[in-house]
Each structure stands twice: as structure tokens, then as C-alpha cells.
């Protein structure tokens, strides 16, 4: 019941009253004609109408009957309704899950998306506050408590983590707050990144040895092996000096491919590309080349004819390439078990 109205009459003979409501209730209230008890007879929505003003009438049972009336004002008070997460504030379509995408190269502070909640209540009961109740790792994203805007708070890396699931909550500001929860799925989009050279590259010191026969012997001396980070894999390429050097496109192994390097500095241009893409970065490598100036002794097979009448200590062959060189020692390593031959160790 909403209320009870009563009436009095000075006439003793007119015992009993009839109560009735004429208009103004929109069918939301009714009155017991005998007791005067007013009760509700419909649903209310404070957003549409916050009060009702109508007249209650009473009629005695005298002859002729006499009547009286009184205006009543019934205020509709707000009941606390729990908020709900919605797709947007226009449609107010309830959602249980949000889904967003963000590229891994976005800076901190980038807006990821917006969450919306609706509460039909008025006043403080309709004031909403957003929060994140779970995320892993923590503080990767922040949620504005007032407008529900979700923002990136940490640098992302697709190769480390490419999906995040958050649990979010919205609560009203009533004396006994009511809440709602939803989940947020965030997919991180991969971005092909250029490999990162560890600049500056160190200076490489390389000493080239002179081959015994440049026309026959292929020269392939390793200079260094380059190794840089690239999430998608790295492909290496030389930009210059391709006649003197080569690089393995997969391993980064850099080699000399000529026997005629001159002493001096070679500034070798390098490029490293993310595998299978045109996203590249360049760098320069300084190679300081020196050519070995020491005695070069090349092995060779020599056929000697020895007469059985040869005398002891008779010279059979001179192996030295430069008799003026010092610091070279010669020795026979095999085939002389009987000691028939000897070699001067110094000349």
C-alpha cells in the first residue's frame, strides 16, 4: 500500500463512506472504496515521471450525499539498479566481452578502446566508476575511472606476448554500490621491424697471408661473423667491395675472396633485412687490412736423381727460397729411417 485516507462526518446517521479517485493517476494507483487504502496498480519509471498529483474523493451515505476531496502528491523515489556494460550509450545493447586490436609498435599512451556502461538511476546511484580487476602483467593497460577509456601503459612486443585478457568492473556510487563485470580481449598485431645493428660496429683488423699459387689456390679467408637481432630472422648483403669480400646471407659470415688485397682501410657497406621483407637497416664496417711480409714457404714435391757413387755431404738440392732470410729452420720429417740424407737446418 501507498497510504490510507480517512474521513469523519458530524452526522451520526450518515455512517459509512465511499472513497474514489477521479483522474491523475495514469492507472498507477487504485483506492479501496470502503477502507480508503491506496495501492499501486502499475509499474513506475522515475526517468519518465518522478511524481503523481491526484485528487482523492470521499462520499457519505446521507440524503442527499455530501462529498469532500483532497489532493495527494506521491513522489517516486529511485531504487538502486545495477549498471550494465553496453556496446555504446546510444543502443545500450548489453555486452559481456569487448575485443580490441593494437599494433606492437604503438607508444605508451595510445588509446586502445573505450568501455561503456549504463545505469538508469538518478543522482549518485547513476554515477559510475570503471576499474580493472585483473590483468597480467599488471599495469600493461590503464582504464580511466570516469570515461572508461582504455590506454596502453607499457611497450608491447608481439614476439613475447601477443594477446591479453582483462577483467573490468563498473560500480555505481550509491550507499550500497552495485557492480557489473566484463572481459576485454586485446590482440597485439605484429609489425615487421628492421634488424638492429649494435652500433658502432667494432673495427676489424685482418692480416692476409700470401698464397703459394694465386692462380691455382682458391683464397677464402674468414674476416668475421656478424650477428644481429631480428625477430623475423635476418638476411645479410654487401653494398660494396663485392670483388674483395663476400657474406653468407644467412649466417653473416664475412670472408675475403681475393688474394690481391692492398694494405689499408676498407669501409664495407652492409645491409640486414628482416627475412622475406624489404624492411632493412644499413651499417658500415671498417676493416683494416695488412699483408703478411714474412717468408712464404710453399710445399712442393721434388724428384731427385742420386748416383750411387755420390759422395757423403754432396749437395743434392737447395730448398731455400731466399738465402738472405733468417729465422727459418728446415727438417726432414719422414722417409729417412736409414739416415742416408740430411738437411742443413738453417740454410
UniProtKB/TrEMBL annotation:
GO biological process: homophilic cell adhesion via plasma membrane adhesion molecules
PROSITE patterns per the UniProt record, alphabetical: CADHERIN_2
InterPro entries: Cadherin-like_dom, Cadherin-like_sf
A GO CC term assigned to this protein in UniProt: plasma membrane
Domain Cadherin: 2-85, 94-204
Subcellular localization: Membrane
One Pfam family here: Cadherin
Keywords associated with the record: Calcium, Membrane, Repeat, Transmembrane, Transmembrane helix
Molecular function (Gene Ontology), one example: calcium ion binding
Protein name as catalogued: Cadherin domain-containing protein
Organism encoding this protein: Biomphalaria glabrata
